[in-house]
Amino acid sequence: MLATGLVGAVAGGIAGAIYSYSTHGEVRLQNVLAGAVIGGAIGLTGGAATAYFTTGSGVASTTLVTIGLAKLATGPAVSITNEATRVIGSFPEYLKKASEIGAKTFSLPPKIWNTMSEAQRWAANQKFLDRGIIEGAQFILESAREVYQYGPYLQKEIIYLLQNGYHFVENGTKLIKR
Questions:
Q1: Domain of 44, in residue numbers
Q2: What is this structure's pTM?
Q3: 73 and 88 share one domain
């Protein structure tokens, strides 16, 4: 099990590095660690299945996997959560909230934003939302308000997320995938 867990962690770390470089243009440690955790968990599961079929002991293999997953989950798992969290809201408040919790935001330099048409702005924003949707990200609102109290642009983002399988939780402060 140790061998399959180790092989899985190495392969997952490499996959995390490739993902990070292709998505962000650089290798981010949090992506490498997240890949290693996921790969290690898959490797441990494969090792447990092998142990079960070799020894016939489901209890022994299940216990080993549980211990292994608990050890892997203490640490890099926080990076996975932050990587899959986005903050949306009113500018510039959502930038502050994202900074506080280490989440991603949609942000373009004002010099570029001000030269874009409304259609170009929405297309860029939609690309940010779509990436989060693909990753199964949670979207946190920078403050708790009724949807109608947000500006029309944020309302459009919320409606888009709702149309793409998200729903409100935590008293309307977070949108998660169903």
A1: 2-79
A2: 0.53
A3: no
